[in-house]
Design brief:
CATH class of one domain: Mainly Beta
CATH topology of one domain: OB fold (Dihydrolipoamide Acetyltransferase, E2P)
Helix content: 10-25%
CATH architecture of one domain: Beta Barrel
Order of helices and strands: HEEEEEEHEEEHE
Distance between the termini: 59 Å
């Protein structure tokens, strides 16, 4: 009777000290290769740690291939990136404003396409795109888009970006 109760207790006490290589993370959900996942409680994409022992949400450099519109870009590795906290005119659809949308897209492309940018990943959206803040030379790209009049702050998601406050 005591033996079945002691085995799990001993495993809890001994296992963390017997695992080498840094922090010990207990996680019930599935993690990708960077130890990231969509959280169930708040539907928030986050990383418990990266394979280098640092938080994957920290800024990293990526290379932007092109921007489809004023708030969606693609990296050279094929990652679709939705610029967090802003909204620009749509190219197509019932609410489309193609002239403004093309101006925003062209400006964003001139700003970051073909360049290395810093990325701060925030979450994944319902289309599987990475929602992130981008910066170039330590200047927030979304803030530039708003300041230049190509985008508006997306109030529904503004809480994700400290610069919107």
């Amino acid at each position: 009777m005591i033996k079945p109760l002691l085995q799990p207790l001993l495993a809890i006490l001994v296992l963390p000290t017997s695992v080498s290589g840094g922090d010990f993370i207990v996680h019930g959900g599935r993690l990708n290769h960077e130890f990231c996942h969509n959280g169930v409680k708040n539907d928030n994409y986050h990383c418990d740690r990266s394979n280098r022992g640092e938080n994957s949400n920290n800024s990293k450099k990526i290379y932007i291939e092109t921007c489809y519109d004023g708030d969606t870009c693609t990296s050279t590795k094929g990652e679709k990136i939705r610029l967090a906290c802003i909204d620009t005119s749509e190219l197509r659809g019932a609410k489309a404003n193609p002239v403004q949308a093309k101006e925003a897209r062209d400006y964003l492309n001139s700003l970051i396409a073909g360049k290395d940018v810093e990325i701060r990943r925030i979450t994944k959206d319902k289309y599987g795109r990475t929602v992130a803040e981008l910066s170039i030379n330590k200047i927030n790209v979304q803030r530039i888009m708003v300041t230049k009049g190509y985008a508006k702050i997306y109030s529904k998601y503004a809480y994700q970006c400290p610069w919107t406050r």
